[in-house]
Amino acid sequence: MMTLGIIGGGQLGRMLAMAAARLNVRTVILEPQADCPAAQAANRQITAPYDDEAALDALADACDIVTYEFENVPVAAAARLARTLPVYPPPKALEVAQDRVTEKRFLNACGLETARFHAVDSAAELAAALADFGGKGVLKTRRLGYDGKGQHVFRDDGEDAAGVYTRLGAVPLILESFIAFDREISIIAARGTDGTFAAFDPAENVHRNGILHTSTVPATIDAAAMQAATAAAKAILETLDYVGVIGVEFFVRPDGGLVVNEIAPRVHNSGHWTEAACVVSQFEQHIRAVCGLPLGDTARHSDAVMQNLIGDDIHHLPRWLQEARTLVHLYGKEEARPGRKMGHVTVLT
Ligand code: ATP
Ligand code: MG
Ligand code: MG
Question: Which residues form the ATP-grasp domain (predicted)?
C-alpha cells in the first residue's frame, strides 16, 4: 500500500485524506496543531512545525510521496523533502504562488493577461503607482494574504494613500490595477505524472466580505471563455511541469475576455462542488495525480451551487440536513469564530 504525506492539517488536508482512504492510500499529516481537522481522517499525524527538520525527515521516512494542502509551505521544507522523495506539486509551484509579484510575472510569461501591477516598498512608490493607474487600484500584501486579508481598494476619491501605506506597509506590497469585471470564475484542473491533463467545468464565484460565499456550475460564460480558461490552466500546468490539482481564479471582463487573478497550487474551495456533481471529486483527482494513478472522469452529471458555512452559518445546519439534493460536509471544528470556514453544502440544482 502507498503512503502519502500531506503538509498541512486543515479542511483541505482532511478531505484529501478521506479521498485517499477510498483508494487504499495511507496518509500521514504534518501539522503543528494537534487535533486539527485532518487528524480525524488521516492514518497518522506528525505534530510539529512545517519547517522542523527532524519532523520533515520523519515524514520522508514514513511516506512514498509528499503533497501539501496550502500554498505557504516553506519552500526550504519542500526542497528538503524533494531530495529524498517525490514532492507534488513541484516546489517551484510554491515559489511562484507565494509572492503576488512573482506569480504575475510567471503568468505573463505564460502569455496570460493579469492586472497591471507595481511592486510597492515605500509611500513614494505607492503614490507613483497610483498616479500610473489613475488613482484606482487594489493594494495587497505580496505574501500570505487569503480571504481578502491584507488588501485595500483605492477608488480615486482623494484618500490619504500615505496613511494606508503606514497601515499595511511594514511588508512588501503590490498595487494592482482595478479590473472592472462582470463576474469571477475559477477552474480546477489536474496534470498526472505522465503529463495527461484534465479540467473540471469552470465555476462562477461570489465573495462576501472577501471570503468565497458561493460557487455555481455552470458559470454564465460563453464557450470561448470556457475554452480560454481551460487553455490557461493547461499552459500553467505544463510550464511548471506540474503534477496534481491546481485552482486558477479569473476575472471575466464585460467583453468576455479573461484576466487571471491568482493561482492556488492545491485543491481549492471553489472546487468543493465536484464532490457532489462529479463522479470523481477534485480531492480524489489530486490523490490520483500525485500517486501516479490515471486521472479520473471530470464530467459533471448535475448543475450545483456550493455554499460555504462560515462562522455562525453553522447554526443553520439543522435546515441544511433536511434539504433535498444537498450534500453537507463539515470540517470537525468546534468553535464557530467569525470568518472561520466550518463546512460547506452543495445543492444539486
Ligand atoms: P483567496 O482567499 O481567494 O486566496 P486572496 O486574499 O488571495 O483571496 P484575491 O483573490 O487576490 O485575495 O482578491 C480577493 C477578491 O478581491 C477577488 O476575488 C476580487 O473579488 C477582488 N479583487 C482582487 N484583486 C482585484 C483587482 N485587481 N481588481 C478588482 N477586484 C479585485
Ligand atoms: Mg489567494
Ligand atoms: Mg483569490
Answer: 104-291
Separation between Cα atoms, residue 275 and residue 272, nearest integer Å: 6
333 carries a ligand binding annotation: no
Domains of the chain, earliest start first: 2-87 (3.40.50.20), 116-176 (3.30.1490.20), 183-348 (3.30.470.20)
Q: Check pocket membership of 346 for ligand 1, CB cut-off 6 A.
A: no
Number of Cα atoms under 13 Å in the Cβ half of residue 82 = 15
Of 178, 215, 261, 267, the one to substitute when testing ligand 1's pocket (max ligand atoms within 8 A of C-beta) is 261
247 is in an annotated binding site: no
For 57-99, what is each residue's pLDDT tens digit? 999 999 999 999 999 999 999 999 999 999 999 999 999 999 9
Q: What are the pLDDT digits (tens) for 1-14?
A: 999 999 999 999 99
